[in-house]
Amino acid sequence: MRALTLYLRSRAVPTTAAAVLGCTLALWALGLAVDHPLGRALAALLITLAATTAIGHGLAGPDHDLDKTAAIAWPPRRAAHIIVAGTAVLGLLATPALAGEQMTDAGQLLRNVAGLTGLVALGAVVFGAARAPLIPLVWTLLVLSSAPEPPTRPTHKVMLTWMIQPADTRTAMVTAWSIAVTGSLAYALLGSRR
Predict the structure, then answer these.
(1) Which pLDDT score, from 0 to 100, does residue 111 have?
(2) What is the pLDDT of residue 101?
(3) Res. 10 pLDDT band, cuts 50 70 90
(4) What DSSP character marks residue 137?
(5) CB–CB of 179/169 below 8 Å?
(6) DSSP code of residue 54
(7) Which of 185, 180, 163 is nearest to 172 (CA)?
(8) Are residues 117 and 58 in contact, defined by beta-carbon separation less than 8 angstroms?
């Protein structure tokens, strides 16, 4: 049990949990304040972005060499870490719906948490844990600034704007889950960049 506690502290899990809890409270408060469906969907996306990027800092420990050279098998631990982190974010962000303030469709929330978590994991592999939020942040901001309404055609535009597509858009769902699997596998196998 002590090893798990040390691992969680070294990965900044208490701080990350507090940040995600703050995002959950913000989602609930915005649910009370915003009535317009498009405004609710945008608020839910931005809070989902904030909550998932909060896990980026914990994707590397304080000693990078220890993470790479320790005699324990890191890939299963890293895979479990990213899966549990994404699941915790999803669980916490879904709680306002239990209180009667559903900001967005459950399928859309699941898709966005999965895809953004995969992008954060990929960001940790490419840029390091400290800069892991760059990829999801830049991608989301580019999508929001260039596409006020979700495009329905051509397919590549639907794929690029997966996070703002309606919940029943199959192409967006496949894109998000492909990103989630790719990012999680890359992080599990390679770990965070120095």
Answers:
(1) 93
(2) 63
(3) low
(4) H
(5) no
(6) T
(7) 163
(8) no
